[in-house]
Amino acid sequence: MIEAQLHVKRADFTLNVHLQLAGHGITALFGPSGCGKTTCLRAIAGLERAQGRVMVNGQIWQDDATQQWLPTHQRALGYVFQEASLFPHLGTRANLEYGLKRTPVARRKVALEQAVELLGLSHLMDRSVQTLSGGERQRVAIARALATSPQLLLMDEPLSALDAARKAEVLPYLERLQRSLEIPVLYVSHSQDEVARLAHHVVLLQAGSVVTQGSTASTMAQRDHPMGPAADAASLVQGHITAYDAQDHLSTVTFEGGELFISGASQRTTGEPVRLRVLARDVSVALQSPTCSSILNRLSARITALREDSPGHAMLTLQAGNTTLLARVSARSVRELNLHEGLSVVAQIKSVALLD
Q1: DSSP state of 91
Q2: Helices 164-180 and 134-146: crossing angle, nearest 10°?
Q3: CATH number where 179 lies
Q4: Residue 226 domain-assigned?
Q5: What distances in angstroms separate CA 151 from CA 48, 121, 273, one per listed residue?
Q6: Do 202 and 346 belong together in one domain?
Q7: What is the rounded CA–CA span in Å between residue 38 and residue 189?
Q8: For residue 228, what pLDDT is reported?
Q9: What is the number of domains present in the chain?
Q10: Whose CA is closest to 175, among 194, 189, 160?
Q11: In angstroms, how far is the first alpha carbon of the chain from the final one?
Q12: How far is CA 312 from CA 114, 233, 287, 334, 350, in A?
């Protein structure tokens, strides 16, 4: 369990948050620039002095009520910054060994070889870090943080300095980390794609306060607190690959609500868990299943909420089994189809993005 009750007051900004998070998995601190994500992370690390209390898996790092305070170097944490911040005069191996050497032998739980394997660095061990690409440097920085066997891994927008190609290179390694290690991760980001792909839990911050928090799927689907502009509103579907059609190159994903056909998953094995991102603008509704349509993905659903989204548009919250979907439709469609809460409809999904 991670508990952080933090208060920071500045002339133009106040952070006031109380977090109680599971001691495993990836929790994303998400929100617009200036909302307090990095301040929160730095306060948990002890890099910035906040008032309050920080406790990680039963160990108190800060408690102002009892005047307890551990400086950063005594907190069992790993910190990955936006820039890799490697030692330029050291090679890859020496950078990793630096992280290992600052960890007492009795507390070492992540072997250096394990960190190297998880981040795919074996072929880079004898290289100078100055010859590495941006993605390779960031993978070394993550491995160095892991080599300290942290009780908590803090990641402050670790992909923001990378271009799209380098991000695509690093993301699979981050997914591997969250599947392979028990170390809880606090991941700061303002990228909805990264959060949907990596996080189990989301804390949505705005102007220094927690607006909402919960599982990634439930938080993304909250119509009152969209994680991004209305045009980018999306829902998260979590399921398993259950079949593959080699003729049409389509995989079947079964989830709590039905089945979806997706492309681009030919290398996936049957039974493998996957996450799918469904944009609200790619979901339409019909009162009955069309007999002639090019849209393959159709789900029986019920409208559980309806609100005006923007002039001329409405956002529908749909329930398909235990899965929540969002659909952005025109106000005219709402009126002509007489759409209302409680109505059973057919959700037609034009496009599905495979996230992991």
Answers
A1: B
A2: 20
A3: 3.40.50.300
A4: no
A5: 19, 23, 27
A6: no
A7: 9
A8: 58
A9: 2
A10: 194
A11: 26
A12: 54, 16, 20, 10, 21
What is the tens place of the pLDDT at every residue in 129-166?
999 999 999 999 999 998 888 899 999 999 988 888 88
Give the range of the structural domain holding residue 293, as residue numbers without chain letter.
232-354
Alpha helices, DSSP H, located in the chain: 37-45, 92-101, 112-118, 134-146, 164-180, 192-198, 216-220, 331-337
Q: Report the pLDDT value the prediction gives residue 123, as an integer from 0 to 100.
A: 93
Per-residue confidence (pLDDT) for residue 224, from 0 to 100: 62
Query: Are 40 and 164 in the same domain?
Result: yes
3-state DSSP call for residue 297? strand
Q: Which helix (H) or strand (E) holds 325?
A: strand 323-330
Contact (Cβ atoms closer than 8 angstroms) between residue 241 and residue 253? yes
* Residue that terminates a domain, selected from 192, 220, 248: 220
**Which pLDDT does position 167 carry in this prediction?**
87
Q: How far apart are CA 68 and CA 323, in angstroms?
A: 44
Position 333 scores a pLDDT of 95
- Of 225, 207, 230, 202, the residue nearest 309 (C-alpha): 230
Structure confidence by residue, pLDDT tens digits, 256-282: 889 999 887 777 888 888 888 898 999
Last residue of some domain: 177, 195, 220?
A: 220
* Domain identity same for 71 and 117: yes
Phi, psi of 173 (to 5 degrees): -70, -35
Question: What pLDDT is recorded for position 225?
Answer: 58
CA proximity to 18, closest of 62, 52, 66, 57: 52
User: How many CB atoms sit inside 10 A of residue 340's CB?
Assistant: 9
Strand partners, 308: 314
Spatial contact of 75 and 45, defined as CB atoms under 8 Å apart: yes
Helix and strand element counts for the chain (H, E)? 8, 21
